[in-house]
Amino acid sequence: MPGIHRERPGADAIAPCRGDPAIDLGDGIWMSPGLSNSYMLATDDGPVLLNTGMGFEGPLHKRAYANVGGGTPPRAIILTQGHYDHVGGVDALREDGAEVIAQANFDVWRADNERLEAFRVRNAAFAWMEAIVAAMEYAKTSGVGVVAQARPEPTTTFDDRLALTIGGRRIELLSVPGGETTDALVVWLPESRTVFTGNLTGPLFGHVPNLVTMRGDRYRDALAYVSSLVQARALGAERVITGHFDPIEGGDRIHEEFTAMLEGMRWVHDRTVDGMNVGTDVHTLMQTVTAPDEFDIGEGYGKTSWNVRAIWENYAGWFHHRSTTELYDVPSTAVSGDVVAAAGADALVAAARARLDAGQPVEALHLTDIVLSAEPHVTGARAVAAAATRQLLESSSNFWEAAWLRRSAESLEDAS
Questions:
Q1: Global pTM value
Q2: CB 73 within 8 A of CB 46
Protein backbone atom coordinates (compact mmCIF):
# COMPACT_ATOMS: atom_id res chain seq x y z
CA MET A 1 0.00 0.00 0.00
CA PRO A 2 1.35 3.50 -0.82
CA GLY A 3 2.71 5.43 2.14
CA ILE A 4 0.18 7.46 4.10
CA HIS A 5 2.25 10.60 3.50
CA ARG A 6 0.75 10.68 0.00
CA GLU A 7 -2.72 11.22 1.48
CA ARG A 8 -1.97 13.79 4.18
CA PRO A 9 -1.26 17.53 4.03
CA GLY A 10 2.29 18.85 4.01
CA ALA A 11 3.89 21.28 6.43
CA ASP A 12 2.72 24.24 4.34
CA ALA A 13 -0.80 23.44 5.58
CA ILE A 14 0.16 23.94 9.25
CA ALA A 15 -1.65 27.08 10.42
CA PRO A 16 -2.09 28.92 13.73
CA CYS A 17 -5.18 28.43 15.88
CA ARG A 18 -8.14 30.57 14.83
CA GLY A 19 -10.34 29.91 17.86
CA ASP A 20 -12.94 28.01 15.85
CA PRO A 21 -15.07 25.54 17.85
CA ALA A 22 -13.11 22.42 18.71
CA ILE A 23 -13.66 19.39 16.47
CA ASP A 24 -15.34 16.36 18.03
CA LEU A 25 -13.20 13.27 17.35
CA GLY A 26 -15.45 10.92 19.30
CA ASP A 27 -14.79 9.07 22.55
CA GLY A 28 -14.88 12.34 24.47
CA ILE A 29 -11.93 13.81 22.54
CA TRP A 30 -11.88 17.24 20.92
CA MET A 31 -9.22 18.79 18.70
CA SER A 32 -8.32 22.46 18.39
CA PRO A 33 -5.95 22.79 15.40
CA GLY A 34 -2.98 25.14 15.58
CA LEU A 35 0.76 25.37 14.98
CA SER A 36 0.73 22.22 17.08
CA ASN A 37 -2.74 20.88 17.81
CA SER A 38 -4.25 21.01 21.27
CA TYR A 39 -6.62 18.26 22.46
CA MET A 40 -9.21 17.95 25.20
CA LEU A 41 -10.14 14.65 26.89
CA ALA A 42 -13.44 14.62 28.77
CA THR A 43 -13.49 13.00 32.21
CA ASP A 44 -16.04 12.91 35.03
CA ASP A 45 -13.80 15.23 37.10
CA GLY A 46 -13.22 17.82 34.38
CA PRO A 47 -11.27 17.84 31.13
CA VAL A 48 -7.63 16.95 30.58
CA LEU A 49 -5.78 19.04 27.99
CA LEU A 50 -2.95 17.80 25.80
CA ASN A 51 -0.65 20.62 24.68
CA THR A 52 -1.55 24.29 24.53
CA GLY A 53 -0.03 25.86 21.42
CA MET A 54 2.09 28.99 21.29
CA GLY A 55 1.46 31.77 23.80
CA PHE A 56 -0.61 33.82 21.38
CA GLU A 57 -2.69 30.72 20.57
CA GLY A 58 -3.59 29.94 24.20
CA PRO A 59 -6.63 32.26 24.44
CA LEU A 60 -7.83 31.03 21.05
CA HIS A 61 -7.61 27.39 22.12
CA LYS A 62 -9.54 28.39 25.25
CA ARG A 63 -12.22 29.94 23.05
CA ALA A 64 -12.32 26.77 20.94
CA TYR A 65 -13.02 24.66 24.03
CA ALA A 66 -15.55 27.05 25.59
CA ASN A 67 -18.62 25.00 24.71
CA VAL A 68 -17.24 21.46 25.00
CA GLY A 69 -16.08 19.20 27.80
CA GLY A 70 -18.85 20.38 30.10
CA GLY A 71 -17.44 23.91 30.28
CA THR A 72 -15.52 23.05 33.47
CA PRO A 73 -11.93 24.11 34.18
CA PRO A 74 -9.19 21.68 33.12
CA ARG A 75 -8.23 19.09 35.69
CA ALA A 76 -4.76 18.62 34.19
CA ILE A 77 -2.57 19.68 31.28
CA ILE A 78 -0.23 17.10 29.72
CA LEU A 79 2.72 18.37 27.68
CA THR A 80 4.00 15.91 25.08
CA GLN A 81 7.30 17.80 24.76
CA GLY A 82 8.97 21.05 25.75
CA HIS A 83 8.97 22.93 22.43
CA TYR A 84 7.30 26.34 22.48
CA ASP A 85 4.40 25.31 20.23
CA HIS A 86 3.35 22.70 22.81
CA VAL A 87 3.75 24.64 26.07
CA GLY A 88 3.28 28.31 25.22
CA GLY A 89 -0.44 28.54 26.00
CA VAL A 90 -0.33 26.94 29.45
CA ASP A 91 -0.87 30.23 31.30
CA ALA A 92 -3.99 31.02 29.26
CA LEU A 93 -5.54 27.56 29.68
CA ARG A 94 -4.52 26.57 33.18
CA GLU A 95 -6.74 27.41 36.13
CA ASP A 96 -6.20 27.03 39.87
CA GLY A 97 -5.59 23.47 40.92
CA ALA A 98 -4.83 22.08 37.47
CA GLU A 99 -1.83 19.79 37.34
CA VAL A 100 0.84 20.26 34.67
CA ILE A 101 2.33 16.88 33.74
CA ALA A 102 5.54 16.35 31.76
CA GLN A 103 8.37 13.87 31.34
CA ALA A 104 11.30 14.29 33.73
CA ASN A 105 13.63 15.78 31.11
CA PHE A 106 11.30 18.76 30.67
CA ASP A 107 13.54 21.03 32.74
CA VAL A 108 16.52 20.27 30.48
CA TRP A 109 14.58 21.35 27.40
CA ARG A 110 13.12 24.43 29.05
CA ALA A 111 16.64 25.54 29.99
CA ASP A 112 17.86 24.79 26.46
CA ASN A 113 15.05 26.80 24.92
CA GLU A 114 15.68 29.77 27.17
CA ARG A 115 19.45 29.62 26.75
CA LEU A 116 19.27 29.65 22.95
CA GLU A 117 15.99 31.47 22.44
CA ALA A 118 17.41 34.38 20.43
CA PHE A 119 19.53 32.09 18.29
CA ARG A 120 16.71 29.69 17.43
CA VAL A 121 14.08 32.36 16.85
CA ARG A 122 16.45 34.14 14.47
CA ASN A 123 17.33 30.95 12.63
CA ALA A 124 13.70 29.82 12.26
CA ALA A 125 12.43 33.20 11.09
CA PHE A 126 12.90 32.48 7.38
CA ALA A 127 10.38 29.62 7.60
CA TRP A 128 7.85 30.71 10.20
CA MET A 129 8.03 34.42 11.01
CA GLU A 130 5.45 35.67 8.51
CA ALA A 131 2.87 33.15 9.71
CA ILE A 132 3.60 33.92 13.37
CA VAL A 133 3.38 37.70 12.93
CA ALA A 134 0.09 37.32 11.04
CA ALA A 135 -1.24 35.03 13.78
CA MET A 136 -0.31 37.50 16.50
CA GLU A 137 -2.08 40.26 14.59
CA TYR A 138 -5.15 38.04 14.30
CA ALA A 139 -5.09 37.38 18.05
CA LYS A 140 -4.91 41.13 18.71
CA THR A 141 -7.91 41.88 16.52
CA SER A 142 -10.02 38.86 17.50
CA GLY A 143 -10.84 40.09 20.98
CA VAL A 144 -8.64 37.69 22.95
CA GLY A 145 -5.41 39.69 22.94
CA VAL A 146 -1.90 38.30 22.92
CA VAL A 147 -0.62 36.33 25.92
CA ALA A 148 3.11 36.04 26.53
CA GLN A 149 4.78 32.70 25.93
CA ALA A 150 4.34 30.52 29.03
CA ARG A 151 7.35 29.03 30.80
CA PRO A 152 5.50 26.43 32.87
CA GLU A 153 6.69 24.55 35.92
CA PRO A 154 5.35 20.98 35.84
CA THR A 155 3.67 19.82 39.03
CA THR A 156 4.13 16.14 38.15
CA THR A 157 6.96 14.49 36.25
CA PHE A 158 7.87 10.86 35.55
CA ASP A 159 10.79 8.92 34.11
CA ASP A 160 9.56 5.97 32.04
CA ARG A 161 5.84 5.43 32.54
CA LEU A 162 2.98 7.02 34.47
CA ALA A 163 -0.49 5.47 34.81
CA LEU A 164 -3.33 7.81 35.74
CA THR A 165 -7.05 7.50 36.30
CA ILE A 166 -8.76 10.87 36.10
CA GLY A 167 -12.51 11.09 36.35
CA GLY A 168 -12.90 7.44 35.40
CA ARG A 169 -10.67 7.68 32.31
CA ARG A 170 -7.49 5.59 32.21
CA ILE A 171 -4.52 7.49 30.79
CA GLU A 172 -1.02 6.10 30.42
CA LEU A 173 2.02 8.24 29.65
CA LEU A 174 5.13 6.67 28.11
CA SER A 175 8.52 8.31 27.72
CA VAL A 176 9.75 8.25 24.09
CA PRO A 177 13.10 10.09 24.16
CA GLY A 178 13.73 9.42 20.48
CA GLY A 179 11.20 12.05 19.45
CA GLU A 180 11.94 15.68 18.71
CA THR A 181 13.11 16.11 22.30
CA THR A 182 14.35 13.78 25.02
CA ASP A 183 11.36 14.82 27.15
CA ALA A 184 8.90 13.55 24.53
CA LEU A 185 6.01 11.38 25.67
CA VAL A 186 3.03 9.63 24.14
CA VAL A 187 -0.43 9.44 25.69
CA TRP A 188 -2.13 6.04 25.53
CA LEU A 189 -5.85 5.52 26.11
CA PRO A 190 -6.02 1.72 26.50
CA GLU A 191 -9.81 1.49 26.62
CA SER A 192 -10.22 3.03 23.16
CA ARG A 193 -6.81 1.89 21.84
CA THR A 194 -5.93 5.47 20.94
CA VAL A 195 -2.42 6.91 21.15
CA PHE A 196 -1.50 10.59 21.01
CA THR A 197 2.02 10.74 19.60
CA GLY A 198 2.57 14.50 19.61
CA ASN A 199 5.61 15.14 17.42
CA LEU A 200 7.28 11.79 18.08
CA THR A 201 7.67 11.29 14.32
CA GLY A 202 8.00 15.01 13.62
CA PRO A 203 5.06 17.16 12.54
CA LEU A 204 4.35 14.98 9.51
CA PHE A 205 3.35 11.36 10.16
CA GLY A 206 4.71 8.93 7.59
CA HIS A 207 7.80 11.01 6.82
CA VAL A 208 11.45 10.67 7.79
CA PRO A 209 12.36 12.58 10.95
CA ASN A 210 14.50 15.68 11.15
CA LEU A 211 17.50 14.42 13.15
CA VAL A 212 18.90 17.93 13.25
CA THR A 213 16.98 21.06 12.32
CA MET A 214 18.02 24.01 10.19
CA ARG A 215 17.04 26.34 13.04
CA GLY A 216 19.57 24.63 15.31
CA ASP A 217 18.66 21.95 17.83
CA ARG A 218 20.63 19.24 19.55
CA TYR A 219 21.24 16.20 17.36
CA ARG A 220 18.52 13.58 17.71
CA ASP A 221 19.71 10.01 17.97
CA ALA A 222 18.63 7.69 15.14
CA LEU A 223 18.56 4.52 17.26
CA ALA A 224 16.63 6.25 20.05
CA TYR A 225 14.08 7.25 17.39
CA VAL A 226 13.84 3.63 16.21
CA SER A 227 13.44 2.38 19.79
CA SER A 228 10.70 4.92 20.56
CA LEU A 229 8.75 3.95 17.45
CA VAL A 230 9.07 0.27 18.37
CA GLN A 231 7.56 1.15 21.74
CA ALA A 232 4.70 3.11 20.16
CA ARG A 233 4.02 0.35 17.62
CA ALA A 234 3.85 -2.27 20.38
CA LEU A 235 0.78 -0.56 21.85
CA GLY A 236 -1.29 -1.95 18.99
CA ALA A 237 -3.22 1.28 18.52
CA GLU A 238 -6.35 1.40 16.40
CA ARG A 239 -6.12 5.18 16.18
CA VAL A 240 -3.12 7.54 16.16
CA ILE A 241 -3.68 11.22 16.91
CA THR A 242 -0.61 13.28 16.08
CA GLY A 243 0.45 16.86 16.66
CA HIS A 244 -0.96 17.94 13.28
CA PHE A 245 -3.93 17.20 11.05
CA ASP A 246 -6.52 14.44 11.30
CA PRO A 247 -6.17 11.13 13.16
CA ILE A 248 -4.92 7.97 11.43
CA GLU A 249 -7.34 5.06 11.71
CA GLY A 250 -6.92 1.27 11.48
CA GLY A 251 -4.58 -1.01 13.36
CA ASP A 252 -3.06 -2.68 10.30
CA ARG A 253 -2.32 0.63 8.57
CA ILE A 254 -0.84 2.12 11.73
CA HIS A 255 1.39 -0.92 12.28
CA GLU A 256 2.52 -0.74 8.65
CA GLU A 257 3.40 2.96 8.90
CA PHE A 258 5.29 2.64 12.17
CA THR A 259 7.20 -0.27 10.68
CA ALA A 260 8.11 1.68 7.54
CA MET A 261 9.32 4.70 9.50
CA LEU A 262 11.41 2.78 12.01
CA GLU A 263 12.85 0.23 9.56
CA GLY A 264 13.64 2.99 7.08
CA MET A 265 15.54 4.87 9.77
CA ARG A 266 17.30 1.71 10.90
CA TRP A 267 18.41 1.03 7.32
CA VAL A 268 19.76 4.56 6.85
CA HIS A 269 21.58 4.39 10.19
CA ASP A 270 23.17 1.02 9.45
CA ARG A 271 24.29 1.94 5.91
CA THR A 272 25.79 5.20 7.20
CA VAL A 273 27.72 3.34 9.90
CA ASP A 274 28.87 0.76 7.34
CA GLY A 275 30.17 3.58 5.15
CA MET A 276 31.95 5.26 8.02
CA ASN A 277 33.71 2.03 8.91
CA VAL A 278 35.03 1.44 5.38
CA GLY A 279 36.17 5.05 4.97
CA THR A 280 33.47 6.50 2.72
CA ASP A 281 33.29 10.28 3.07
CA VAL A 282 30.17 11.94 4.39
CA HIS A 283 29.20 13.66 1.14
CA THR A 284 29.34 10.40 -0.80
CA LEU A 285 27.13 8.79 1.83
CA MET A 286 24.70 11.72 1.64
CA GLN A 287 24.45 11.12 -2.10
CA THR A 288 24.12 7.33 -1.99
CA VAL A 289 22.32 6.24 1.17
CA THR A 290 18.56 6.10 0.68
CA ALA A 291 15.73 4.24 2.37
CA PRO A 292 14.47 1.30 0.30
CA ASP A 293 11.50 2.18 -1.93
CA GLU A 294 9.41 -0.55 -0.29
CA PHE A 295 9.02 1.67 2.79
CA ASP A 296 7.62 4.66 0.83
CA ILE A 297 8.44 7.28 3.47
CA GLY A 298 7.99 10.98 2.75
CA GLU A 299 10.67 13.64 3.07
CA GLY A 300 8.49 16.69 3.56
CA TYR A 301 10.09 17.95 6.79
CA GLY A 302 13.34 16.03 7.20
CA LYS A 303 15.52 14.55 4.46
CA THR A 304 17.47 11.31 4.37
CA SER A 305 20.62 13.06 3.13
CA TRP A 306 20.47 15.43 6.11
CA ASN A 307 19.90 12.50 8.44
CA VAL A 308 22.97 10.72 7.06
CA ARG A 309 25.08 13.73 7.97
CA ALA A 310 23.39 14.01 11.36
CA ILE A 311 24.13 10.35 12.13
CA TRP A 312 27.75 10.81 11.05
CA GLU A 313 28.31 13.91 13.14
CA ASN A 314 26.33 12.65 16.14
CA TYR A 315 28.79 9.75 16.29
CA ALA A 316 31.97 11.39 15.04
CA GLY A 317 31.73 15.14 15.55
CA TRP A 318 32.93 18.01 13.41
CA PHE A 319 36.28 16.69 12.13
CA HIS A 320 35.81 14.78 8.87
CA HIS A 321 39.50 14.02 8.17
CA ARG A 322 39.12 15.82 4.85
CA SER A 323 41.45 18.78 5.23
CA THR A 324 43.93 20.16 7.74
CA THR A 325 41.99 23.44 7.55
CA GLU A 326 39.13 21.82 9.50
CA LEU A 327 41.32 22.14 12.61
CA TYR A 328 41.56 25.92 12.50
CA ASP A 329 39.39 28.98 12.92
CA VAL A 330 40.04 30.39 9.43
CA PRO A 331 37.10 29.78 7.08
CA SER A 332 37.49 29.05 3.38
CA THR A 333 35.99 32.47 2.63
CA ALA A 334 39.20 34.02 4.00
CA VAL A 335 40.89 33.24 0.65
CA SER A 336 37.94 34.01 -1.63
CA GLY A 337 39.51 37.33 -2.56
CA ASP A 338 42.70 35.58 -3.61
CA VAL A 339 40.76 33.13 -5.79
CA VAL A 340 38.81 35.93 -7.44
CA ALA A 341 41.99 37.96 -8.00
CA ALA A 342 43.77 34.98 -9.55
CA ALA A 343 40.94 33.64 -11.71
CA GLY A 344 38.90 36.78 -12.29
CA ALA A 345 35.29 37.32 -11.26
CA ASP A 346 34.08 37.06 -14.86
CA ALA A 347 35.78 33.69 -15.36
CA LEU A 348 34.29 32.31 -12.15
CA VAL A 349 30.82 33.57 -13.05
CA ALA A 350 31.16 31.98 -16.49
CA ALA A 351 32.18 28.69 -14.88
CA ALA A 352 29.20 28.92 -12.53
CA ARG A 353 26.84 29.53 -15.45
CA ALA A 354 28.28 26.52 -17.28
CA ARG A 355 27.64 24.37 -14.21
CA LEU A 356 24.10 25.70 -13.99
CA ASP A 357 23.47 25.02 -17.68
CA ALA A 358 24.75 21.48 -17.13
CA GLY A 359 22.13 20.93 -14.42
CA GLN A 360 24.54 21.31 -11.51
CA PRO A 361 23.05 24.16 -9.44
CA VAL A 362 24.89 23.30 -6.20
CA GLU A 363 28.26 23.38 -7.97
CA ALA A 364 27.22 26.71 -9.48
CA LEU A 365 26.49 28.05 -5.99
CA HIS A 366 29.90 26.93 -4.73
CA LEU A 367 31.46 29.13 -7.41
CA THR A 368 29.16 32.14 -6.91
CA ASP A 369 29.72 31.92 -3.14
CA ILE A 370 33.44 32.47 -3.76
CA VAL A 371 32.77 35.53 -5.90
CA LEU A 372 30.09 37.04 -3.67
CA SER A 373 32.04 36.53 -0.46
CA ALA A 374 34.86 38.61 -1.97
CA GLU A 375 32.84 41.02 -4.14
CA PRO A 376 29.20 41.08 -2.97
CA HIS A 377 28.03 43.46 -5.67
CA VAL A 378 29.00 41.45 -8.76
CA THR A 379 25.57 41.37 -10.40
CA GLY A 380 26.43 38.51 -12.74
CA ALA A 381 27.28 36.27 -9.80
CA ARG A 382 24.05 37.23 -8.04
CA ALA A 383 22.03 36.47 -11.15
CA VAL A 384 23.57 33.02 -11.56
CA ALA A 385 23.17 32.32 -7.83
CA ALA A 386 19.52 33.34 -7.96
CA ALA A 387 18.88 31.14 -11.00
CA ALA A 388 20.65 28.19 -9.36
CA THR A 389 18.60 28.66 -6.22
CA ARG A 390 15.37 28.80 -8.22
CA GLN A 391 16.38 25.62 -10.03
CA LEU A 392 16.84 23.85 -6.70
CA LEU A 393 13.51 25.24 -5.49
CA GLU A 394 11.67 23.79 -8.47
CA SER A 395 12.64 20.26 -7.44
CA SER A 396 12.19 20.66 -3.68
CA SER A 397 9.23 19.17 -1.81
CA ASN A 398 10.74 19.69 1.64
CA PHE A 399 9.27 22.44 3.82
CA TRP A 400 12.51 23.71 5.37
CA GLU A 401 14.59 23.42 2.21
CA ALA A 402 11.96 25.18 0.09
CA ALA A 403 11.54 28.00 2.62
CA TRP A 404 15.29 28.59 2.69
CA LEU A 405 15.64 28.50 -1.09
CA ARG A 406 12.70 30.82 -1.60
CA ARG A 407 14.05 33.44 0.80
CA SER A 408 17.57 33.11 -0.59
CA ALA A 409 16.40 33.58 -4.17
CA GLU A 410 14.33 36.62 -3.21
CA SER A 411 17.28 38.15 -1.36
CA LEU A 412 19.61 37.62 -4.33
CA GLU A 413 17.07 39.04 -6.78
CA ASP A 414 16.30 42.07 -4.62
CA ALA A 415 20.01 42.92 -4.40
CA SER A 416 20.67 42.55 -8.14
A1: 0.95
A2: yes
